[in-house]
Amino acid sequence: MKKALALSALVSLSLAAAQKTVTLAWSGAITGPTSDAGASYAAGVEDYCKYANAQNMLPGVRLNCVVRDDQYNNANTQRNFEDFVGNLNTPIFLSYSTGSNLQLKGVIEETKVPTLPASYHIGLIDAPNNSYMFLPVSSYSENIVALLEYVAKKDRGAKVALVVNPSPFGRDPVVDARKAADRLGLKIVDVQEVGGNNLDNAAMLRRFESQGVKYVINQNTAGPVANILKDAKRLGLLGKMQFMGAHYTGGEDLTKLAGDAAENFIWATSYYMYDEGDRPGIQLVKKIGAQYGRKADTIRSVHYTSGMLAAAIAVEAMKRAKTDISAAGLYKGLTSMNGSRAFNPGFTVGPVTFSTKDHVGAESLRLLQADKTGNFKAITGGQRSQMFQLVHPLR
Amino acid sequence: MPASRFTQTGNYRTRYAQDQTIFATSAEQLSLIVLVLVLLALPLLLPKTLLRDVNLIMIYAVAVIGLNVTTGYTGLINIGQAAFMGVGAYATALAATRLNLPFFVAIPLGGVAAALIGTFVGLPSLRLKYLYLAVATLAFQIIFEWTVGHLPLLQQGGAISLPAVQVFGIRDTFLNHNRFWYYLILPVLVLMALLWRNVLRTKYGRALIAVRDNDRAAAAMGIHPGVAKLTAFLLGSFYAGVAGGLFAYFQKAVVIEDYGLHISVQLLAMAIVGGLGSLPGAFLGPLFIVALDRGMEVLSQWLGGQNLFPEGVDVATALRPLAFGLTIVLFLMFEPRGLANWWRLSRMYFKKWPYKF
């Protein structure tokens, strides 16, 4: 008996020794600006990583799950990147904000480490230095252009206002939106910048009203949009204007902050919603969230799903890399995700596809509208913006 | 002549020239040389991530010396130092990418651009004082952010990537980045500190202090307070511009978020904690604030891992800003002269040891 125990201990030890440890690391805003989204995103990455270990998704490989707060500070992100890539040898970088990713483009190109940002800024995959950046889902620009297409179908010639965040994150889609609006016969009559400190939007909304604006498209985070919606409700403008927005404007965060003022808000995103329990990805989100004891609010957040998607793509790339779990191996793994080998973890409306030329993962998106209960219901099927290809051809 | 060149046992100065020497004793001179030698060897001793923090401390120290020039030595409150850093960073980026100038020309050019803008922004100081001037510089911070955010030339605040630098055949790469920039930033910091130390010994430097202490008395002594104030803004923003240029190269790209109001507040905190109107304070302040931030990061990570708090309560959310705010309040209340005063007291202690008085 003693001999058998000793033997099994020896076997276990040798198996453990044979296991390779690979770091799966994320750097983002758990505190500081946009941490409302970042904290849930971090939880998603961390939980999926733990789940992958628990499920032994990568036989012979133990994932070292590292989630680090960069406080939305670019210098901290660079420090984390240096630590992850330089010291922990992570073969893939899961990152967060627009500014830090734009700043890191050159270094990422130099180190050849594939990077999956939480920012869906199209400039990240624009030349130059764009070989190793991969957007997990469709870009903000495509979200906005898809919303413009929806408006054009419904109300050709309508007057539209854009409300964007005063940052590279907010400003970037404006150029593409203007080009698309011109082609679609829409008039963008105003572009306003609104940050997180927008306590009173009455003047801006009254101006939109006097300009005859019927559609207000937001490229922002949920907080400022919620304030706009509450002000619009107070001014009795909700029925007169249709409010819409790109990925980071909507979801649970918006309904939580805006309450019933969020009703009818139209939102463009590639992700499935928490209440779409028939989707395998959402079932997995609920299962993992419960398994790791997350709060209901965290599990319901679309950003929790987003974090899981990023981690799932990384793990899948590792699976495909087989024995070569290096940056080069993962790059090959990522770029093999196309055609019959597309990756579909079920978190998004379409599969994740990448190639050496295609750096947008889940390209399909849906438009959803908030109902009376605050839930977002799909008003379109999975689709791609036709116009976006024309106004912003990639490579 | 003193009894010994290595100990200061009394004041033996008989000429103004002796009174203006930087070092009172040879021991002080020697200790600085030893310090610089230790600093030169530091990259060989520190891990890479810590070296990055040291580089940041040095860059902030350049900016804080500048802030000390305007606020500490001349008494002009400035809440827009990060914007001056930003002017320097963007000017450096344009010089490097549009004019293809090498970094050793682009960075000083950034300093000159910031100095020009700084002098212009300093014009209200001829009429305004105290809180009013603080608001004027705050306005510049906002104008700067808005302007950058709307200029296509500056990518609307998006990133302007800087070219990789090469010195004596050694290229700045991912692997040597922190060490490479350490050896470039350190001499700049030493030069800038020496420059300010020497300006202080001139009549122009003393004029700034006189204006801070009492501008009417200074005017009565023949000092032009307006010129002195504009000189302070010119010099202070030059330092900020150079710091901005260094930061741009160190970060490899210029992004507007790096030069926001929160950074101005942080620089002001560094100047206060270090000790306003003190050169050692300009080093100690950044060192303390960056170390505090790193310390809080480690502490909150550790606390977070102890399962002491329910899920969703992020310790870091509270700890880091709390520590930052509390430090400033405590320093203002109990040590308004900052860490520089502790440094002075420690030096005095060792100088007088074993005697108490």
Describe this structure in words.
- Chain A: Residues 1-17 form the signal peptide.
- Chain A: Residues 21-374 form the Leucine-binding protein domain.
- Chain A is α/β, with parallel strands linked by helices and 395 residues long.
- Helix content of chain A is 45%, strand content 16%.
- The longest helix of chain A is centred in the N-terminal third of the chain and has 20 residues, at 35-54.
- Chain A is globular, with a radius of gyration of 22 Å.
- Chain B has helices spanning 16-19, 26-45, 48-73, 81-97, 103-122, 130-150, 177-201, 203-213, 215-220, 225-251, 261-274, 279-305, 315-334, 338-352; strands spanning 160-161, 166-167, 170-171, 253-254.
- In chain B, helix 5 (103-122) packs antiparallel against helix 10 and helix 7 (177-201) crosses helix 8.
- Chain B is built from 14 helices and 4 strands.
- Chain B starts with 15 loop residues before the first helix and ends in a 5-residue tail after the last helix.
- In chain B, the strands form 2 sheets. Chain B has a two-stranded antiparallel ribbon with strand order 1-4. A two-stranded antiparallel ribbon of chain B has the order 2-3.
- Helices cover 71% and strands 2% of the residues of chain B.
- In chain B, a hairpin with a 2-residue loop joins strand 2 (166-167) and strand 3.
- Chain B is mainly alpha-helical.
- Chain A binds chain B through residues 30-31, 35, 39, 69, 71-72, 74-75, 78-79, 82-83, 85-87, 99-100, 102-107, 110-111, 123, 129, 166-168, 171-172, 193, 293-295, 297-298, and chain B through 47-49, 52-53, 56, 145-146, 149, 155-159, 161, 164, 173-175, 177-178, 251-253, 255-258, 297, 311-312, 314, 316-317, 320.
